[in-house]
Amino acid sequence: MLYFPLQDLEAAALNLDDPEHLRIHSLETFGTHDGPGVRMVVFVQGCQFRCVYCQNPDTLDVHGGMLIGIDELVKRADRQRSYFGKDGGVTVSGGEPLLQRNKLTTFFKALHAIGINTCLDSNGRLNDAATHELLEHTDLLLLDVKHINDEWHHKLTGLTNKNTLDLAAHRESTGKRMWLRYVLVPGWTDQPEFLEEWAKHFTRYKTVDRVEIIPFHQLGSHKWDLLKMNYPLKGLEGPTLEGKKAAVHTFNKYFNNVVLK
Ligand code: SF4
Question: What is the CATH classification number for the domain harbouring 20?
Fold first, then answer.
C-alpha cells in the first residue's frame, strides 16, 4: 500500500462546480483492501454521515481535499493497468462517493471505455436516478450497511439507514454484483439479535457474492485529535476473538462467502 501526498496535483485545483474535476482526499496505488485484485483507490472528499468510529475524519469536510481532473485520473489508472491483472481495476472510496455521483459516472464511463474494471465503496446515503445511473457503470458495489436497526443507525452515523437499504434493494433488482461490508464495533454493532436481523434481511439477495466483517480498530483515532474533534470511541477496544467468531458464525448461517478482514 502506498499513499502519496497530493502536492503534485495542486495545479489541478480548480473551482468546485467544474464537472470535469473530482474533489478527492488522496490516492492509493496497489490497493488490495477495497475490492478484488490490485486496485488504484481514489478516496474522495466529503461525507454526510458522522460515524462514531470513522477512521478517516479528515475526509468528512465537503470543502476540504483537492480537485483533480477526471482525465488525469483516467490517465493514472491507464498507466497502472498492467498491475491490475484480470481482477483488479479502480475503486472509488471515501468519504462518500455518491456526493459526486454525476462526475463519477463520467469517470467510470471513461474507465470502461479503456477496459478498466470499476468498483464503488459507498454508505448508500443517496438513492436517486443519478445514483442509479452511476451504479449502471459500477462493476462491483461495496455497500457498507452499518446497522440494521434504524435507531442504532442514527446513533452510529447521525442519519437513517433507509436510503442504504433501499439502494441495496435497487442493486438487487438490477442483478449486478455487490459485496456487503459490516464494521463490528463492541457495544454498538455486535448485538446478537441485530446481527441475525441484518443477515436475515440480505440472505435471499442473489447479487451479494461476499460479506465482509471489518473489526473496529483505533488506527485512525489520532486524526480526531489532530482535527480537534471529540472522538466518541476513545479508548474502546476492538472486538475480542470470541466477538469476531460469534459474528462470523451468525453470518455463516445466512451467506456462503463471509470474510473476516
Ligand atoms: S461513512 Fe465512512 S467516511 Fe463517512 S463518517 Fe462513516 S466511516 Fe467516515
Answer: 3.20.20.70
For 121-157, write each residue's pLDDT tens digit: 999 999 999 999 999 999 999 999 999 999 999 999 9
Distance 82 CA to ligand 1 centre (A): 31
Distance (Å, whole) CA 35 – CA 121:
8
210, three cell numbers: 461476499
* Beta-bridge partner residues of 42: 27, 92
| Domain coverage including residue 51 | 2-260
Angle ∠(253,53,242) on CA atoms, nearest 5: 40
Say if residues 57 and 227 touch (Cβ distance below 8 Å).
yes
Closest to 42 (Cα-Cα) out of 72, 18, 12, 10: 72
In 15-45, which positions are buried (b, 16+ CB within 10 angstroms) versus exposed (e)?
Answer: eeeeeebbbbbbbbbebeebbbbbbbbbbbb
Name every residue whose Cβ is closer than 8 Å to that of residue 79 and which is 6 or more positions away in sequence.
none
**Per-residue pLDDT tens for 207-231?**
999 999 999 998 888 899 889 898 9
- Mutation test residue for ligand 1: of 45, 122, 123, the one with most atoms within 8 Å of CB: 123
* Pocket lined around ligand 1, Cβ cut-off 6 Å: 47, 49-51, 54, 56, 59-60, 94-96, 123
Per the structure, how many domains does the chain have? 1
| Beta bridge partner(s), residue 91 | 41, 119
For the entire predicted model, the pTM comes to 0.93
